[in-house]
Amino acid sequence: MSAMTDTATQAKAAAKPLMARINWVKAAPWLYTLALFALWELLVMALDMPPTILPAPSNVFAAIAKYWSPIWKNSLQTLYTTTMGFAIAVVAGLAIGLFIGWSKTIYAGLYPLMIGFNAIPKVALVPILVIWFGIGTVPAVLTAFLISFFPIVVNVATGLATIEPETEDVLRALGAKKMDIMLKVGIPRSMPYFFGSLKVAITLAFVGSVVSETVASNYGLGNMMSSAQSQFNVPLVFAGLLMLAVEGIAMYALMAWIERRMTGWAHRSTMAQ
Amino acid sequence: MSHLVSIDNVDMRYGGASGTLAVSGLTMRVDKGEFAAVVGPSGCGKSTLMKLVTGLHIPQTGVVIVGGQQVTKPVSIVGMAFQNPTMLPWRTTLENILLPLEIVERHRHRLRAHKREYVEKAEQLLEIVGLRGFGSKFPWQLSGGMQQRANLCRALIHEPELLMLDEPFGALDAFTREELWCVIRDLHAAQGVTIILVTHDLREAVFLADTIFVMSARPGRILKEHRVPFERPRDLDVMYQSAFNDMVHALHGEIAKARVVA
Ligand SMILES: Nc1ncnc2c1ncn2[C@@H]1O[C@H](COP(=O)(O)OP(=O)(O)O)[C@@H](O)[C@H]1O
Ligand SMILES: [Mg+2]
Asked: Which UniProt keywords apply (chain A) (predicted)?
């Protein structure tokens, strides 16, 4: 793909110096997004879709402008519940991951339990959380946490459990305790796994918070979209989706950036292969 | 009298009473300052022998004595290097080499206060193995041979009395291997360290060692002990003498026979 862009760049470089100065690889995500919106707009026009079924992007952007104040408030609420749940998931996931990865016995005993827990659709837990905590922010935060901590646990535990036996032998022969091996090798080694899992976890956290807001809250994008839907305000539903996409991309990009900053070595060394 | 390592009639079985008997009736002695090589068919218990001497495994019967003390737990007067260099990729080469000092009891409390002194020593070692100026590089920026050189530095940084090498050059090409033979030879001559080298390369064993132990097939025990007669310091040219080749040939025959018996 980059080769194609290169030849395109070169072809245009001869004709227009301005075009040559654009970094097409960098620009590609924006161009593709614009193209998607344009295609969507054209499709709605061509098929003459009513806005109650599929509103055109122009319609959706108009809705965003019109309802900006509630959209902004609810977006912040969703971002808040998601990051809260995610933050708890990071702390708890790291702790549980370290605990599980500590010994082969704990790993063997708890792993099936974790798999079983992960297989439960988290939306099924929302009613229980509502019974315990009432509707609102708390069940949304907890659902975001419950759905996103699993990949963190698994990744951290795997990083610890896959220490090369030779490395362990070298250190044990020097008199290293389990704690030394964890601090010197296990934890640094599991960091790329940990930071890698954050990208997955943050995306899942959005799923959890929005699901919970949809069924059990008076705030947040999930709630806004479900009430908009009951009023047949379809452009507003799509406006909510768009805001979710924007928040999701922003948080994902942040996690990817953190990952690169913290574990640059893993991308160059053989471990990343 | 001055045995640094003495193993007496040792049995080592993995995985409980019905498990694999890896070595049985193993007896050998290595003197202080000696360079010993252990050769034998694959799977005969050579790595097990290394782990018995370092205290990573405790034998079911028999005794292992290192430095005058019976081995009942890991002994920190030992440095180890394996075929796989196991450098930690998030540490620079220098930090990797200093790692044992963060573990070994008698150094770990001094490390912070005497960092300069230790770093100097690491740099000296790097120079000896021909890696001067590479301390700040990460392991993945080094070639396999260079990583193995750094690995040797790491095994030596805490000034062990005994250096255990388990097929350290197995993964390297022939030229790099010969270069590293010379590095080991010079280290042994300069530092007066006792070395036990496990290898399947008979030319390597004859070139480097004072004594060669031939092991039987599993369960491993020592079949024969050879003194290597060649004068030190040895040059790579020694490998083209007919006496050298005769010795390699004889060892080869013994191991082939040990394999057939199994
Ligand atoms: N941790 C272990 N658990 C069970 N069996 C083992 C273990 N390590 C080695 N063995 C067995 O013991 C025997 C000797 O192994 P090893 O000492 O590694 O041989 P070598 O290094 O000479 O190839 C082999 O048959 C091997 O399968
Ligand atoms: Mg072996």
From this structure: Cell membrane, Membrane, Transmembrane, Transmembrane helix, Transport
